[in-house]
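Complex record, two chains
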Amino acid sequence: MTRITVGPFNRVEGDLEVRLDIESGRVTRAEVTAPLYRGFEQILEGRPPLDALVIAPRICGICSVSQSIAAAAALRQAMGLAAAPNGILATNIAHAAENAADHLTHFYIFFMPDFARDAYASHAWHSATAERFTATKGSAAREALPARARLLEIMGIIAGKWPHSLAFQPGGTTRAIELGERIRLNAIAASFRGFLERVVFADKLENVIALSTPDELDSWREGRGGDFAHFLRVADALSLNDLGTGPGLLMSFGAYHDVDGAHFRAGIRTDAGEIEALPAHRITEDVSHAWMRETSLDPAESRTVPDADKADAYSWCKAPRLAGEPVEVGALARQAINGQQLITALITADGGSNVRNRVIARLIETAQLALSIEQWIKALRLNEPFCVNSGETADGHFVGLVEAARGSLGHWLAVRSGRIERFQIIAPTSWNFSPRDADGVAGPLEQALVGTEVGTAGARAVSIQHVVRSFDPCMVCTAH
Amino acid sequence: MTVGSEGMTRMLWLQGASCGGCTMSILESGASGWFDELRQSGIDLIWHPSVSEQTGDEVVELLEAIRDGRERLDLLVLEGSVARGPSLSGRFNMLAGTNRSIYHWLLDLAPLADYVVAVGSCAAYGGIPAAGINPTDAVGLQFEGSDVGGALGAGFRSKRGLPVINVAGCAPHPGWMMESLLALTSGDLGADGLDTVGRPTFIANHLAHHGCSRNEFYEFKASAETMSERGCLMEHLGCRATQAVGDCNQRSWNGGGSCTKGGYACIACTSPGFESAQNYLQTAKLAGIPVGLPTDMPKAWFVALAALSKSATPRRVRINATADHVVMPPGRPSDKRSS
């Protein structure tokens, strides 16, 4: 047995270290370390509750809108408010734009460049892939980055700027959209659809989201241009559906809530393929292998007290568990729980989540979001308010549960005497990249890495990179 | 600027105790994308944690080669605070795979660079991680709040004799970052082009207030009272744009926005110590007068002028200030609409 360390792990958001035990060229055990602690939960304690709208989004520069709306949701509960319907729609548009931009950034900047690496030079598909996806030099980035920037112009209109906006308030959004601005939002949405239909899918979005079986997907991709089909061919050549199988249990907090409920519903998907209600009260955080002192397991009652010298600890990330189980979150979980046909069929065919299906789920979701953005822009009622007055916060325990691009994000807020008494955050990558718990059960990535072939490449094995990046980890969110 | 055999400026970008937001912002730069813009500008991004191909030991080898003088380093950019804790060990922020903290890597690498640039208020002054009890002993590269010192010390000068260049902001405008980098590579930015806290004066000689689209409301002290109203945000909603530097309202963010256009207060994110304020979206007042008045205006004058301008506020401006839509359009006094 040999033990190798992989790091710095780049092209993820933040830094990551992975230690692997290798036997006969295969991973037999993995330990995942979040190497950065900043202490947001400690920083928030004692502040006026609304300061969370300034501090919490700054956990993360890639999903700051998600962090904003989780904090705003908890504060809304503390104020006993209902947000203005227009504010909810404007929030959904901005949130969908951020999540779609995240999916694009992941696909083009973080994930695909691995297939352009020299390790694959002997493969027939390599030269075209290298021309298209080589990090910083491939032709794809010259199209994807301007498309991303154009999409984020939605933020200029709704949110003032991105990242780190204060536009997302408990009562709605801080600026009413006028007719000219709605027209500009339409133009941005059309431009985004154009990029997706021309560059990513080479097909109408409606046709893409209508695909419902693995066979349909296979025949759809035959001879098709576009970067999604390119990925599907590479994924088949490398059997990426056999790589990085997750722990089984999937979870979503539900996303894009409006007056009719969540656009993507909340719930869990069991190993057996059953969709069940979300038992949110059974969420706990275990610190047995984190550089943290024991407090409560319940995020509503716990605190964050770092202990850098703790024996047997190996990460700043606590280990979230649902009813004691590790859980995979992300676009794949969200789509599976929402009953998206293709994703459900792929999970069933492959026996679970894997590298290929995580990427497919992200791109299918991107197509859905482009269509939803168009609908939400149309639904704005320009003469009505976008924000209702925020009131005083009550003392008590409150929670904001949302879905960031990478999965389920929760903010647990305790207010006492008008100040933040405790603030606990469980981010998507805290779930996916959690360390072991007190029972020694490994986190989802730790489980997904076991069995990965590294051959003689050891720490340089590209397969490890694929498994890790297939989760689109955000390490700055993880330990926060 | 030293140039290599390829004629390119060699830039290394590192992330400390960061949210990654400065990178996310600069990825919006350039009509054909940031990577193209860098190449066109003669900058070779030798490694960046979010975008480069090299990973793991390839990166460690590069960093060691720079440290040992085998590779040249023209521009060292840091995003994120320097977490020195616990007890100056830097263990709150290790560079994965190296068994060494970012803090200690920076101490090694910074003296080897021609220029050292702090992007964002975290790298410049400590930023949000330094707020409250500052759990990680976070500081900026050469400042701790507004006090010179920080991780590298007050006396630090890069190989070209400059202190750390602080491109403050949370997150900074992509233009601030690229323009600062290019002003350095073109030799146009020297010590005389920095203000007292290390910010390029071409940005810091402006106030966020300049060019604010709410200026008419400011002039007449016609103020918004709650979120999403159109009036000036200074009197009640915490806006510090008259005190915070930056040309925020003179250029567009994300294709046309800014914080105040977005309907919320400037929180002075370009200022050292902005993270220590509280109640950001409420104006602190004493005897009904905002505490944070424009820094270069005597209080008595401000109060007198405010009283005068309030007495002269046109009805249109007063009414629109507390509405979320324009309820009274501009027009001549004889127009029926404005009567």
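Note: Residues 1-5 of chain B have pLDDT under 50 and may be disordered.
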